[in-house]
Amino acid sequence: MAQGNESTVIEVRDLRKSFAGRHGRRVEAVCGVDIEVRRGEIFGFLGPNGAGKTTTLRMLTTLLPIDSGSAIVAGHDVARHPARVRAQIGYVSQLGGADDLDTGRESLLLQGRLYGGDARTVATRTAELIDLLDLGDFADRRVATYSGGQRRRLDVALGLVHSPDVLFLDEPSTGLDPQNRANLWERIGDLRAAGTTIFLTTHYLDEADALCDRVAIIDHGLIVALGAPVELKREVAGQAVLLSLRDGAPAAQQALALLEPLDYVREASAHEADLHLYVDNGGESLPLLLRVLDGAGVGLRSISLSEPTLDDVFLRYTGRSLRDTGESGAAP
Amino acid sequence: MKLVRDTALMTWRSLLHQLRNPVWLFVGVSTPLLYLALFAPLLKHVTVLAGLGHANVLDGFLPGILSLVAFSSGVSQGFTTIFELRAGVVERFRVTPASRLAILLAPILASMLMMFVFDALLVAVGAAFGFSVHWLGLAVLGVLLGLLMTVMSAFSIATALITKEISSFAAIVNGINLPILLLAGVLLPVSIGPQWMRIIAHFNPLYYLVEGSRVLASGSFSGPHVWQAFAVLVPLCALVLAWATRVFRRAVS
Known about the structure:
Chain A is an alpha/beta fold. Chain A has helices spanning about 55-60, 80-90, 105-115, 120-130, 150-160, 180-195, 205-210, 230-235, 250-260, 280-295, 310-320; strands at about 10-20, 25-40, 40-45, 70-75, 75, 90, 165-170, 195-200, 215-220, 220-225, 240-245, 265-270, 275-280, 300-305. Chain B is about 80% helix and about 0% strand. Classes of the chains: A alpha/beta, B mainly alpha.
């Protein structure tokens, strides 16, 4: 019994999950998430570690029971028909999961058989995937000998053996060097071109920006912004100016007080010695800003003007920079 | 049918992994042989002192070693589970529609197969040194060994899924190892111990196997030890498997 709309692959309403925390208190990991993922798109879940990305993903992939809310994945209710959901989705965890003692081809063949394919179909599909993800050079070597990038591509292939309706990728490029990341992105782009729907989580802005058709920014278990990367960046008005003050936090506060009232400054916030501004027409307003600061005797260490990035979007909605959030509170 | 198919696929995988691990194979064969070579000679004099008359010391000792092999190959299963948990392998299989019971049973079956190969080797070596072979008794004993091995494996895997990391798992396994082995009479029969020891032994599943194994290996089926072993191990096996499947279904890593 398939539910939902044909063009919607994932439909999530008010999804919640909490875990037992210290001192008997409940820790809310996911507090009311709504998502809709359309067929054929790459949907990104962007947020710092511990924001609830992996927890959400684990619920959608039937690995973790849902506390409350509903999730329809590939036409089936995750809570009521986990087995039907499993048959329709592919999942690549952060850890990968290929067996060191098997060859890549053996892993793919076994995975295909576990999804119910007969030996011949699975062999054909395996050959296709080896081609698609460029595994040919090492498919018959044991996985233990693979490099990080090779292993990652095999992991992705393992998630695709049964041609799933949607592929879940949890932090796909974590731990890869820039060259292998670029290679992986290229492969993911190929998959999208072939019509695969992909739901991925990432804490890399450039990854979300480069790959995703739409991005949901998640923080403390809540979606704070949702849209195409371009739209999100457009919402952050004007251009981003980053001023780094020579005399530290007090100077940043002083500069904030001076600049915030100016009518071409849309938004301003101070973080220690840094001052983030969003200004109209940067080319003209920048000299004006400098004049004001100079007049007040506030010294600068550095200054930069840029088009807004997803980090600016993140900063705007959470009050923190994604780069500053660090490794606190990893998701269970 | 799906259960059978999935189990066969996963068992073949586990079997290949075992064969591809030469160190493991070597230790698996050599440890029980060392027991025979290094412990049986000591036992010779002890059994004479204790008045336990066996035609050959191996007739009493070898069945105990077979039981020991079943126990330890079962109880060590969890190490693989923890390794696979850490490598994401468990998750990779859990998101497939494969039968949960098949995923759980496969490594047990593969290890059991290897265990029977080791057992056959032990019996062959034992026979060369005077152990009298009674085929029918050994065949029935094989069933009991398989049952105990399943009980210990399922227990070990479930414990591994709960503890999730090697140090606390290893502590638990090592902690139960010694008392269970000593209270089962694997090396020395419990019957030469004091009464409190003989009473506690009755709470130890391995004890029933060891007692039954000595009777069966002698080619006899009479006496209470054989049916008692089945009466304890069959329900225990069902119980532990049900618990382990439940833990596996809910396992969060």
